Amino acid sequence: MMLFKEIKVITEKECELLLNIFESNKERFTQSSNNGEVKYSAFESVINKDFPEVHDFLVKTIKEKNIAQLKNCEIIKSFACRYSSDSQTYMPYHYDLDNYTLLIYLNDDFKGGGTHFPLIKKVSSVGEVGIGNGILFNGLHIKSWHGALPISSGVRYTISVRIKKKGVLSLLKKMFNLSILILVGNVLNKTQHKYGKIRVKLDKLK
């Protein structure tokens, strides 16, 4: 069964501070292959490299939450996404390919957007979850295929924290799941389904 859990992560005041840091350094947000193929990326910044103090804050804060599903796990990286009309308004559908992803919503002063999980018929949005809150899901589950729906105005910021389970057995299971998800992802990318192709005009999903 796919894990999909809403979690309170940081305060709105902390979100404001992070937004100020990111927006003051928006040139660090680029479209790259840091987190996979460029064609599946948005304008991103690898927080643990570009903003190490922010990454340390996230690690400390998440550990203090004592989230049951994250026992015997470790945070391996984090990155922020910036969606805007002057860069990119959406992120194509993809698999995260890590044991868990904690996706944190930082602001709501934009129109459109949301995180779409078509295989579970779910759209998660900041209006539903709340500023500073996030969704935790297992990124190796076949139904975790997701994408960021386009915004129509404003600037949208999210933080994605990638988490892996410790241990050799967990590593072997991950390697097995990776091979399956890569295959499934390729099929989903090429095949027409009721929500449209992965690389078509996403504004149809608004």
General description of the model:
With 206 residues, the protein is α+β, with helices and mostly antiparallel strands. 28% of the residues lie in helices and 31% in strands. The chain has five helices and eleven strands, in the order βαβααββββββαβββα. It has helices at residues 12-24, 47-50, 52-64, 126-129, 168-190, and strands at 4-8, 43-46, 73-84, 91-94, 100-105, 110-112, 115-117, 122-124, 133-137, 146-148, 151-165. Strands 1, 2, 3, 5, 6, 9 and 11 form a seven-stranded antiparallel β-sheet that branches. The longest helix is centred in the C-terminal third of the chain and has 23 residues, at 168-190. Residues 192-206 have low confidence and may be disordered.
Topology diagram in text:
Layout: E1 4-8, H1 12-24, E2 43-46, H2 47-50, H3 52-64, E3 73-84, E4 91-94, E5 100-105, E6 110-112, E7 115-117, E8 122-124, H4 126-129, E9 133-137, E10 146-148, E11 151-165, H5 168-190
Antiparallel strand pairs: 1-9, 2-3, 3-11, 4-10, 5-9, 5-11, 6-11, 7-8, 7-10
